[in-house]
Design goal:
The chain has a single domain, classed as P-loop containing nucleotide triphosphate hydrolases (Rossmann fold, 3-Layer(aba) Sandwich). 30% of the residues lie in helices and 18% in strands. It has seven helices and ten strands.
Amino acid sequence: MAVDGPELASPGHLAAAVAERLPALGRAAVVVPAEGFYRPASLRLEHGRTDPDARYTDWLDAGALTREVLAPVGPGGSGRYLPQLWDLVRDRAVRARPAPAPPGGVLLVPGTLLQGVGLAFDVVVHLRVAPAARRRRVPADQAWVLPAFDRYDDEVDPVALADAVVLADHADRPALVLGGRWA
């Protein structure tokens, strides 16, 4: 299950909360953050630290996420996934060992800009923050990312692709919308 949304909507917090509750419902869960599969800084930041186009297209190594996580836990996979490939703070490979996926468990992958890059998820929850709300809530020093999310909305239309949408314009008042397109 992908939990897709801008950083300010905290997709990792939602994924962790869901993972915490699933065992009580008889389903084990594991959270594998997409940022553990970002590319090295030499590739990610090749066009500068504040390039919105690079943020949109160059940060996530979707091939590595598929190869090391999604394919192994998917149908016919080995059941062993790599919890992290790259350490963003140290900007180096992580020496993580493959871990066994819990039998019948749920894999949650929180991250940003996850749809439209060829990743295969059974379920996608999109945390929707409208452009005006993004502009209000993003700190001034991070405003350079806004065009990346505008482009994502225009080119991918993550709301239409998602199985469920959480309207997250106001962090303290989220609203769940199930199904595809909403008005």
